[in-house]
C-alpha cells in the first residue's frame, strides 16, 4: 500500500501507467530515427533541446507549443538568432573551453554571455512575432550562441533534425499510436 501512496500525484490522481509507457514508447520511436542518423553520419542529429520537443510531440501536451509550425519555426528562429549573435559577439569561442578556465571577469566569458543574452532576446521576440511559441527552442538558441553547435552546417543539421522529428512523428509515430493504441489519453 505504501508504494501506491508514493505513486499518487495529488490527493485524487495517480500515475497512469498506460499513458506514461505510451509516451515513453513514442519518444523511443523519435530517437531511434535521429539516433540512427547521428550514429551513421557522425553528425549531431541529437542535441539537448530536441528532447523537450520530442516529449511534447510524444505526449500531445500543450497544442499551442507542439504543432509542427511551432516546433520547426521555433527551432529555426532560435538557430538563426543564435548563429547571428555568436558570429557577431563570440565567434571562435566555445562555452565548455572558456568556462573550464574559470577566470573571473574574463572577456571571453563576457562575449559568450552577451551572445547568449542577445540570442535569447532575439529568439523571444522572433517567436512572439511569428507565433511560433516553442519553449524548447530557447535552449537551441543558447546551444548555438554559446559555441556548442555554431557552424552553418551544424545549424542546418539542427533545423533538419527538427524537420525530421516532426515529419517522422506525423508519418510513423502517429500511425503506430493508432495501430497499437499507444497514444496517451491524458498527457497531464
Descriptive notes:
This protein is mainly alpha-helical and 188 residues long. It has one domain. The chain contains 9 helices and 2 strands. Strands 1-2 form a two-stranded antiparallel ribbon. The protein starts with a helix and ends in an 8-residue tail after the last helix. The model has no long low-confidence stretch (mean pLDDT 87).
Strand order of the largest sheet: 1-2
The tally of beta strands, per DSSP, is 2
Structural class of the helices, strands and pairings? Answer: mainly alpha
Order of helices and strands: HEEHHHHHHHH
Taking the sheet with the most strands, its summary is: 2 strands, antiparallel
Percent in strands: under 5%
Domain HPP transmembrane region: 16-176
InterPro entries: TM_HPP
Organism: Natronorubrum daqingense
Transmembrane segments: 27-47, 68-89, 109-130, 142-168
Question: Can I get a quick summary?
Answer:
The protein is mostly helical.
Amino acid at each position: 500500500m505504501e508504494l501506491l501512496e508514493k505513486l499518487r500525484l495529488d490527493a485524487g490522481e495517480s500515475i497512469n501507467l498506460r499513458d506514461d509507457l505510451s509516451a515513453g514508447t513514442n519518444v523511443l520511436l523519435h530517437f531511434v530515427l535521429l539516433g540512427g542518423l547521428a550514429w551513421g553520419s557522425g553528425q549531431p542529429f541529437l542535441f539537448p533541446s530536441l528532447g523537450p520537443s520530442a516529449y511534447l510531440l510524444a505526449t500531445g501536451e500543450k497544442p499551442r507549443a507542439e504543432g509542427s509550425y511551432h516546433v520547426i519555426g521555433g527551432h529555426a528562429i532560435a538557430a538563426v538568432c543564435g548563429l547571428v549573435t555568436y558570429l557577431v559577439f563570440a565567434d571562435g569561442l566555445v562555452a565548455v573551453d572558456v568556462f573550464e578556465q574559470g577566470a573571473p571577469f574574463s572577456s571571453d566569458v563576457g562575449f559568450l554571455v552577451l551572445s547568449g543574452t542577445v540570442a535569447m532576446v532575439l529568439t523571444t521576440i522572433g517567436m512572439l512575432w511569428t507565433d511560433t511559441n516553442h519553449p524548447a527552442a530557447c535552449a537551441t538558441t543558447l546551444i548555438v550562441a554559446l559555441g556548442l553547435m555554431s557552424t552553418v552546417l551544424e545549424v542546418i543539421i539542427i533545423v533538419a533534425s527538427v524537420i525530421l522529428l516532426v515529419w517522422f512523428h506525423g508519418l510513423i509515430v502517429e500511425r503506430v499510436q493508432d495501430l497499437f493504441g499507444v497514444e496517451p489519453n491524458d498527457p497531464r
